[in-house]
Design a protein that fits this description.
Rossmann fold, alpha/beta, 9 helices
């Protein structure tokens, strides 16, 4: 069970497979298994897959400090350095995309290719501030209502109907969210990486979801516009977390991009 120290924290990461490095970074409220547990097997035949867990998630240990994008990025970078000898293909989802983009800008020697999934550039606009403030208030007031809101905005309508009544009830029985999610939500509401994005030199694929009510597809469009030479793929009819149930399209796009 590997850990690596950085800035007063002990970062846990999972590592599987053999070959060139592929790092997968979860989002707020996620961890290495919950987000990428059904993705790893698609790459371990050709890659060493590294799944770091930043503060507030999984087994990573810290002192409960307030989170910053800089700390999350350094935790990701530390896991990459500890697990591999060369640059990796780096995929970040949601808040993990924010961290991954920051790693690529600050440490270009660590990133061969960059994939940003359901990410965004800043939270300074009225809608995003209102959204993340609602998350904070629901988490503080009623964790079950918070879970309901996260489910309703995290998945598209068609995906929720596919869950069925029993599946939705089962989701409420899940032990999620983790204890550290409050700090991650605070960070989500304070994201602004616009200044660093033009410094990214790694070939970049940006993937957005057309029906994303949690992180609207405009966030992916803004990433694409700000990162020189990037490519944008929008997946229509998909919510933010629909791919958890069926990652085949994400796997296809990722494999195509990192083997080109």
């Amino acid at each position: 069970m590997p850990f690596t120290p950085v800035r007063g924290t002990r970062v846990h990461y999972d590592i599987d497979g053999r070959g060139p490095g592929l790092a997968l970074v979860h989002g707020a409220g996620g961890d290495s298994e919950k987000v990428f547990g059904n993705v790893v097997r698609h790459f371990t035949d050709t890659h060493t897959v590294i799944r770091p867990e930043f503060s507030g998630s999984g087994l990573t240990e810290d002192d409960g400090r307030a989170l910053t994008v800089g700390l999350v990025a350094e935790q990701i970078a530390a896991a990459i350095r500890d697990a591999t000898d060369g640059p990796v293909d780096l995929l970040g989802f949601s808040l993990g995309a924010v961290g991954a983009a920051t790693v690529a800008a600050a440490h270009p020697e660590l990133v061969r290719r960059l994939i940003l999934v359901g990410g965004w550039t800043h939270s300074t606009g009225p809608r995003d501030r209102f959204y993340f403030d609602t998350w904070r208030q629901l988490l503080s007031a009623d964790r079950e209502l918070f879970k309901r809101f996260a489910t309703l905005t995290g998945f598209g309508a068609a995906a929720l109907d596919r869950f069925g009544h029993a599946g939705l009830e089962q989701s409420l029985a899940d032990a999620w969210p983790p204890a550290g999610i409050g700090r991650q939500i605070e960070l989500c509401g304070n994201v602004d990486i616009r200044a660093v994005l033009p410094a990214i030199t790694a070939p970049t694929l940006v993937i957005g979801f057309g029906d994303d009510a949690m992180i609207p597809v405009e966030g992916s469009r803004a990433l694409h516009a700000a990162i020189p030479g990037s490519r944008l793929v929008e997946i229509p009819g998909q919510g933010h977390m629909d791919w958890f149930a069926d990652p085949s399209r994400l796997v296809e796009l990722t494999r195509e991009f990192i083997t080109a």
